[in-house]
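The pair is quoted verbatim below.
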Amino acid sequence: YEQKAEFPEINSLEFWYKLAFLADVTQSLNILQTNLQGENKLITHMASKIFAFEEKLRMYIEEVSENDFSSFPKFDLMTKENTIFSDEENLALKPQLLELLGTLKNEMNSRFNDIKNLRNPFRFIENPWAVTTKEIFKINIMNCNIGLLKSELIDLQQDITLKDIFNGKNNTMEF
């Protein structure tokens, strides 16, 4: 005896549109996750991937608000292929899509809020020659003696040997 389960939502075109949208969003999350995994990754590189994804989420929200679904290829393809799905129905889905993106943006913000305060120190780690003594306040997260930090920064930046070594390396990890 076979028990037949009924899932009426499968027959709904709206269900398939939502699924396509979720597949596109999940693909973006998977790309982020892949970029964060692996060996020999500096926190600075991972943070930049997180910052980029948060910026993309802002862009996605703006695009969906303007009925631009080009960043969601599966969803976009469905809307173009299925003329049955009217603009009116598309507009009815928009608040749900925006809510999903907004929730994701808020989750990312709450999970990675602490790392945002480290943007300037990360810049110093990536390239100590790109930071000026005037910016030392932005990278002083340990509340060290500012005068000493400025002096050490100048010593580091004026060390030609270190700068040549830094410039000769392909990435910060080697340095």
